[in-house]
Write a structure and sequence with these properties.
With 456 residues, the chain is α+β, with helices and mostly antiparallel strands. The protein has three domains: 2-258, Spore Coat Polysaccharide Biosynthesis Protein SpsA, Chain A, CATH 3.90.550.10; 271-327, no CATH class; 341-452, Jelly Rolls (Sandwich). Helix content is 21%, strand content 36%. It has a six-stranded antiparallel sheet. The chain has a five-stranded mixed beta barrel with strand order 8-11-9-10-12. A four-stranded mixed sheet has the order 14-16-18-19. β9 and β10 form a beta hairpin. It starts with a strand and ends with a helix. GO terms for molecular function: mannose-1-phosphate guanylyltransferase (GTP) activity.
Length: 456
Amino acid sequence: MKLVLLSGGSGKRLWPLSNDARSKQFLKVLEDEQHQLVSMVQRVWGQIAERGLADCSYIATGKSQIEMMHNQIGRHVPLIIEPERRDTFAAIALTAAYLYSEQETSLDEVIAILPVDPYVESRFFDEVKQLETVLRDSDANLALIGVRPTYPSSKYGYIVPSVHSGESGYRKVNRFEEKPSEERAAQLIEQHDALWNCGVFAFKLGFLIGLLEEKGLPRHYKELVRSYHTLPKVSFDYEVVERTEQIIVRPYEGYWKDLGTWNTLTEEMGNHLIGKGMISEDSINTNLINEIDIPVSILGLSNVVVAVSPDGILVADKSASPRVKDFINYNQGPMFEERSWGWARILDDQRYDDGRAVVTKRVGILEGRNISYQLHINREEVWTIVKGEGEFIQNGNYMRVKAGNVLHIPMKTLHSIRAVSELEIIIVQSGNGEEDSRIVELYNTWEEVEEHCTNM
């Protein structure tokens, strides 16, 4: 059995902490057993490893998330990279082509697909394992997991199963209903024993490879990558699941939650206060998540979430917080990005009528990490080191640097820096607007830089 986690999506529902560069699964707001802050993807990968599934698991993700994945769960985790965002049908088609042509996986192998960010007990992944047995014991094309509802929710889709169960505890699927009203959801649960659709399903690889052939799509990964931009932007549920006959579902009785909105996420946070600030004792069921250095105080406000990041500030009643994705429409790019070597925060961004741009950033480089050996085609930079010590190379010239040093990097000048201790740098970039982002990278590791680029 192969397990594939789908990691995609934009960052609107948990704005301002999430953005186009940092989706919700990377936010470190949950607690592990040691009370350390972890992200959803770190939590889920830890559960997969605990259940002995890590060696057969992959993550399908976009190019923009590669660095964050490496930073949070390590470079050893195999990634299947989407060239661009095109919804779940395209992502799963690419996954099937990758396993078939690059990994030479048998067409009889069972592939299980699930989101990267479910909030579940570890035993949920034992149920995922059972999908292989269920699929092989039946004549089904698809095997799903349906969660036993704890209340009639209008936020989830529903699986309406048949009455009779198979020997392995599965039931045939009669139909689906997408996000009904609470009244209709109550009827589905009471009259039809309907289940929440948690987005987990399994199939034999041959089923999906055959589907690609039927649709005239390449079976080979490299060919599909080249034509990826032509694939429809549509969900796998709509394009495949709802059009497939012979689908079975295995009911799951345990805890499951989609932490897709601030009100559901804060219910599972171990601490009401993350970051600098205070919450008064008469503020009941109120959460503050603050990613900046300016303290925030909350007095006498209950059932509220306050989230603060370089991208903005959200103050919302928890019941209204799901509306944030439809409410915000700010014309700005991400102001915070997590990178494989650390992080970057935009402090100021000025654009001028003649096309010039001046951007000021605060950049953090983790101890032992380094940026690539690179040059900028159309921008120069001035670095002021404000914390830590490092090793700096410019056009092959090596020097030790520390807090208080100021470095000038002209256009088309090769440079790199490594943090001996955790570094923070104020970087002022000036160049020709959109053109100043072009970068040429020669080497990524510090070992390569030392071997090829130093005059020591």
